[in-house]
Amino acid sequence: MKASKYNYIIPYGDKQYIFFNGITKRFFLVSDENVGKFKEIVDNPNTEVNISKYSFFLNRMKAEGFILEDEVDEMSLISEEFERQRTPSRYMLMVLPTYRCNLNCWYCVQEHRDVDITDEIARRIKTHIKKYLSSSGVKHFRLSWFGGEPLLAYERIREITEFSQSFCKGHSVEFSCDITTNGLLLSPDRIADLSSLGVLSYQITIDGCREKHNLVKRSEEGTAFDVAVNNVLGIVRNAPGAECILRINYSDKTLEPAQIMHDVNQLIPPEYRERITIAPYKIWQVEDSKIRYEKVVELNRIAHRKNYRIHPLCGSLCYADGVHYNCFFPNGRVGKCDNARMEDANGVLTDTGEIIWTLPNAFESHLALSNNSECVNCKYLPFCMGPCPAKRTDMLASSGKITCQYPEGDKERIVRDFILRYCKNRITQEQ
User: Assuming Cys at both sites, which of 199, 216, 314, 321 could form a disulfide with 177, CB separation 3.0 to 4.6 Å?
Assistant: First the structure.
């Protein structure tokens, strides 16, 4: 037997440590007085003393992935997991029906313009859906609406969603649909209408507490925070079976856990909170070093105590890595990353519903596992999963190799903080 190469020991509070395995995502809390012995046994499972005295413990460590048989190749396990995530029996199609938006958030990566899906592009999308679902062998079709603000093109959403729902029903393909929106253009009638079309998952973003949110999202619809959160309530109250992710975009200046949850709780009665997932995400322009991640943990802890669901903080592949995934822009271009400029998308949707890629596709395989990647030798690989596809593409274009996505000297601290938050959230959920 041998110890896993992906075991991590991380301080947890004053007198405890977390033993964490990157592949299985299993972990244990160990007291400071026992941590040395714990590590010695795991690192040396074949000694006569350890086998005779700690056989039960060794068997448990083996079951949890901390100890392996000598012939086990962990890189193969990682590769298998990556491929499993890349090749689900599900086609996820993200569609941006418009590049317009009714807001102007300072951190948005898009250049909002007056560009909408035309009748011809809509026809091509429907032709593509029909052809792809008929030939790919996928069992589930997930239609995902994004933007811009997608609800500005509401009738186009209805048209394509209704077609997709009907086609899937007639061809024994499971159908699901989700939408990411700022929530300002929802109404009880629209929620009911979207539910009838199979839209049962919503992601709505707030930018901190009421005061901070309204500074970012200035709207003519009234108080933007109250409108958005009240529409979250409208979803879970009026759409049976629907779920809602309340995404909290935060920076070092807006991360105020108690105030955020206080303002949300004012509008969401306790009986509806278990259908709402709280999902904090750092605004990408803000450096990791500026964030006090204990505040993120505190935000999740408060949310959990108030009966909300907590979004799992665990490394995974970007959906853009999926074999059965495409993103359609309103101009008819096709890409893999919805954050890219639509003019830079390297695919074209033809009049027959096929996609022609005009440049080599850097998303064909998980290049973090290739020989020209630093990630292969990194002890945090199975948890981090390497750079996102867009970053990988940029790295290959500039240097011909994939390097660590984190700043020099910060990798260990950032990844360990990520693991710590993951473990703390799991512990909080189980309390």
Answer: 199
Nearest to 307 by CA among 281, 280, 271: 271
Query: Do 156 and 42 reside in the same domain of the chain?
Result: no
Long-range contacts of 45-53, Cβ-Cβ distance < 8 Å, separation of 24 or more: 45/1, 45/2, 45/3, 46/1
pTM: 0.83
Task: Decide if pLDDT at 363 tops 70.
Answer: no
CA pair distance 66, 371, nearest whole angstrom: 26
CA separation, residue 116 to residues 155, 338, 427 (Å): 11, 15, 46
Domain extent, residue 65, equals 2-72
CATH number of residue 156's parent domain:
3.20.20.70
| 317 pLDDT more than 80 | no
Flag whether 197 is in a domain.
yes
Domain assignment present for 301:
yes
202 has which bridge partners?
A: 179, 244
Residues 292 and 179 in one domain: yes
How wide is the angle at C-alpha 181 spanned by C-alphas 323 and 324, nearest 5°? Answer: 5
Strand 16-21 to 140-145 pairing: unpaired
Give the pairing of strands 67-68 and 27-31.
Answer: unpaired
